[in-house]
Amino acid sequence: MTDDSGRASFLARVAAALGRKEGEPRPAAPIQRAVGASTFDEETTRDAAALAIRFRDELGLVSGETVFVPDVGGVDAEIERIVRSRGLGPAESDLKKADYAVLRAEALIADTGTALVIERTAERRLAPYLPRTCIVVADSDALFPTMSSASLAALHAAARRGDKGEAVLITGPARTADIEKTLVLGAHGPRHLIVIIAGIQAAEKDAPS
Amino acid sequence: MTIHFDRKQVHDDLHSPSAPAVLDSSMRRAVEHKHAAQALIAWDELRERAHEIKAYAIEHLDELLVRFESEFIARGGRVLWTQTADEAASRFLDICRTHGARSVVKGKSMVSEELELNARLTAAGIDPVETDLGEYIVQLAGERPTHIIAPAIHMSRQDVGSLFERKLKVDYTDDPEVLSEIARVRLRQRYLDAGVGMTGANFGIAETGTVVVVENEGNGGLSSQAPPVQIVVMGIEKVIPTLDDLIVFLQLLARSGTGQKMSTYVHHFLGPVDGRAMYCIFVDAGRTALLADPVARESLYCIRCGACLNVCPIYRRVGGGAYGWVYPGPIGSVITPSMVGVEDAGELPFASTLCGACAVECPVKIDLPHLLVHQRARAVDEGAASSPFENAAVASWTRAMSSSRGYSFAVLAARVGGAASSMLPWISPAARAWSKERSMPKVASMTFKDWWRER
Ligand code: SF4
User: Fold this and answer.
1) Distance, CA of B279 to CA of B91 (rounded, Å)
2) Are B261 and B309 part of one and the same domain?
């Protein structure tokens, strides 16, 4: 609901500042993107292996890690391996105590090493932020070259459906440079970000991109 | 309230041994990072696009605001419209009281500084907690942010170390990593205990009614998601038409602001999950005054990236404190006179050399020098430019330049004086402070004209 006090005069002030004539109704035009097509729609390659390597390299530049597993069936074993090798505590439903959280990405953007994560419930809403280690899982189908209408389609859809919660684009572990511009990883969020991409064959791992 | 470009502060800053050095090297680092990140994309084409989108959005602001409102409400939020900073702060307090909040965790927000929200909350017995590391430091120090994206840029790591030692009773350290960890641990429980979480907005998407917040530390996620009530305080100029338009700005904002290709977090608030509440407070606070001015209107395209501060020779020497209000640097000097009134802040646009570096950097291609000149003209027309230093200097320059004899005399005088620095101290205390810290270039022993004739 809207609080009406002040609304009408507020909008009248805006209209007057824009030089609209009094009482002139504004067209309720459908909202369109302001100009042209996105420059970033152009790349259409969906070669998953090449995109996966580009994603890994980009994420690596911002201190995130990427691992490949051949199929979805291998994801749980990979998570277990990560947990064991890093000495993380057992899976914990109380996020305040958890050493790590597992998130599902609805899109991966190779150009920037970015994962699109949508959390729709009260219990999960702090999962991307509270634990020190954040493990993001995605299928290789979720790989896109650039940030574009296509790679953000899941976000569009969630917004259109009226989903609740938060959609967040995550690029690397949390960081700050607020003291003398010196980079410090972790800040208020995770110190480690590991993305597991399922559906990339081991042999493709180091194929030239 | 009268806002002067604070010469006393200039004076102090020039004498504080660390400030300008810290500032200048930080700024240089910021600019270098940025140029590296920009080299890889079609930078100019993007800037052009961003400018066009903002131009469209501002021309259609009335439509976009109404559309945003209806979509935001459909997501389960409430929208409040406030004319003044004071009114916005009052409404914010009303919401806190309605929900019985004892403390508010805050993500980084410059609008909140306009509202003087921390003071208002404190006076009402509600505890404001800044969570962005820079803002947290500034709040502990009882200061104001001096840069729109790096609030504590004026402090050295040693300053922060002794501040933490004094205020938080921890052992002294000047290691940024340890200092950051101290802040993290202190703030963890505050997120979970707070009754209200507040953020600003980088963008409001009219098409979807979603609010977008861009940040790096994770504090924006925690501040917005942890408390049961979320309040977004948003200047009306933040609304853009569509999600596709957002993509253009996401390419520009991080590159311009921090030299990253993409910020760590781009949050999209979809709507309150069960039992929670979400509000948006639209703030005018002088923005419609900018909107009504067909020239100054362009300043509403600003996405608050901070790039124009980083390259501004004035900002780099004196820092943000000298500008006297919330927004420093070139953009601050343009918008402040319209937002708080020319009578109070007409001096600010004169604190510029019009070198044009800001316009080259601005990711939305705002013609800042043009806007600075426009605001100067307004200040002069409205009789609000009262800068005796400038008037006297300009008057004598005009006298000297109005005849070739006058110019020759000035050159002669400078040469006789040996160095111009010896003349400056009698002009004003500010000039004295300035000249004490640096040597003036020696005036050549021969004029170019003489040299040309003799060769
Ligand atoms: S005016 Fe341009 S450069 Fe300055 S903060 Fe705004 S967007 Fe950035």
Assistant:
1) 11
2) no
Complete domains list, chain A, with CATH: 4-20+29-204 (3.40.50.10420)
Amino acid making up residue B331: I
Structural domain contains residue B355: yes
Rounded (to 5) percent helix, strand, coil in chain A: 25, 25, 50
State whether B110 and B177 are in the same domain: yes
| pLDDT at B429 exceeding the cut of 50 | no
Is A209's pLDDT higher than 60? Answer: no
| Mean of per-residue pLDDT scores for chain A | 88
**Statement: residue B420 has pLDDT above 50:** no
Long-range pairs for A7-14: beta carbons < 8 A, 24 or more residues apart: A7/B81, A9/B83, A10/B81, A10/B82, A10/B83, A10/B282, A10/B284, A11/B62, A11/B65, A11/B66, A11/B81, A13/B83, A13/B284, A13/B288, A14/B61, A14/B62, A14/B65, A14/B236, A14/B288, A14/B291
Provide the pLDDT for residue B212: 98
Domain enclosing residue B213, as ranges: 41-285
Q: B307 and B437 share a domain? A: no
pLDDT digits (tens, 9 = 90+) for B380-416: 888 766 554 455 445 544 554 555 554 454 444 444 4
pLDDT band with cut points at 50, 70 and 90 for residue B259: confident
Q: Give residue B163's Cα distance to chain centre.
A: 24
Query: In the listed set B349, B381, B413, which residue is the last one of a domain according to the structure?
Result: B381
- Please tell me the residue having the least CA distance from ligand 1 atom 3: B362
pLDDT at residue A75 is higher than 90: yes
| C-beta of B302 in contact with ligand 1 (< 6 A) | yes
What's the distance, CA A191 to chain centroid?
Answer: 16
Residue B216 has pLDDT above 90, yes or no: yes
The residue-averaged pLDDT of B102-123 equals: 95
State whether B227 and B82 are in the same domain. Answer: yes
- How far separated are the first and last CA of chain A, in Å rounded? 52
Q: Is residue B411 part of a domain?
A: yes
Q: List Cβ neighbours of A7 (8 Å cut-off, separation of 6 or more).
A: B81
Q: What are phi and psi of B119, to 5 degrees?
A: -65, -40
Query: What is the percent of chain B with per-residue pLDDT over 90, rounded to a whole number?
Result: 57
Q: Taking the model in full, what pTM does it have?
A: 0.84
Does B423 or A32 have the greater pLDDT score? A32
B45 in any annotated domain: yes
Q: Distance between CA atoms of B117 and B262, rounded to whole angstroms?
A: 30
Nearest CA in chain A to B230: A165
Residues B253 and B308 in one domain: no
Best A26, A134, A179, A184 residue to mutate vs chain B (most B CBs within 10 Å): A179
Q: Would you say A62 and A195 are in contact if contact means Cβ atoms under 8 Å apart?
A: no
Rounded CA separation A128/A174 (Å): 10
Residue ending a domain, choose from B237, B269, B285? B285
Same domain, B305 and B356: yes
Taking CB atoms and an 8 Å cutoff, what residues of chain A touch B23?
Answer: none
Q: Which residue has the higher pLDDT, B308 or A202?
A: B308
- At B382 the pLDDT is 81
Reduce the DSSP state of residue B286 to 3 states and report it.
Answer: coil
Q: Phi, psi (5° rounding) for residue B233?
A: -105, 120
Asked whether B221 and A189 are in contact (CB, 8 A), the reply is yes
Structural domains in chain B (count): 3
Q: Which of B18, B66, B140, B262 to mutate to test the interface with A (most CBs of A within 10 A)?
A: B262
Q: Per the domain annotation, does B392 fall within a domain?
A: no
- H helices present in chain A, as ranges: 7-17, 48-61, 75-85, 153-161
ipTM: 0.92
